[in-house]
Write a structure and sequence with these properties.
Layout (H helix, E strand, L loop, with lengths): L1 E2 L4 E6 L4 E6 L4 E2 L6 E2 L3 E5 L24 E6 L15 E5 L2
Amino acid sequence: VSEDLNNMLWICDSGNNRIRVVSLVIKVQIPGSNQFANNIILTAAGDGQDGRLGSPGDGGMATFAQVGMPMALSVSDEYVDPEVGRLPTALYITEGH
């Protein structure tokens, strides 16, 4: 678990081969709706497939990537332009064996 400078909580969901993110303060759009809220759990990376067994999805969208049993993560202190969104420019993930 890691918290970034925008109070976004980043979570390794090892059992589901995904990285989750929870916006603790900033309201984010609820997927599939036009509503915004905080304390919503979203998938930031991983398609649920074990990345240790196949293609990791490098260079593509993070939600289509395969993440193999994520064990630890860290987020950068640099952010994408606020006009585009308040997401860190880099997310570092340690995968299990």
